[in-house]
């Protein structure tokens, strides 16, 4: 019976991961929702009874609801994005999303009870908001800025980039991909992801 219950839980979780729509945030709720989501992730990470895979499975729906992986993919490829067919764009987006998630979860596994402090929300443009947070450890702290954009024709906001101690994740990938595509093909880039 225990195995059947676990199987049902896994099926439901997989279903949520594959059909989970973007649950974008409204501007007035960004800070409070991010505080709540950050606390949820922290609680999962601190739960020593969960395996690494179980933690990943519980955190993925939280991150999937606020990150726009398609926009992140588009920005990371820059001008090269426009040269791709719709199928190539979708293939790249799927592989890049997978790469981002793996990178994110690898970093989360380094978590050792640091405190996450959600600081201030700054509206830098009518359609851009930066949420400043700090990761505070026993000996050091560093700033993370979550960059949100306003989804067209809605009141919703999604994350399109993250700055970690002043370095943009998406701009870093964009530079790497531009250099890669200067000498290699798009299919080789796909294979490298």
From TrEMBL:
InterPro entries: MlaC/ttg2D, Tgt2/MlaC_sf
Secretion signal, residue range per the UniProt entry: none
Pfam families (alphabetical): MlaC (PF05494)
UniProt name for this protein: Periplasmic protein
Species for this entry: uncultured Sulfurovum sp
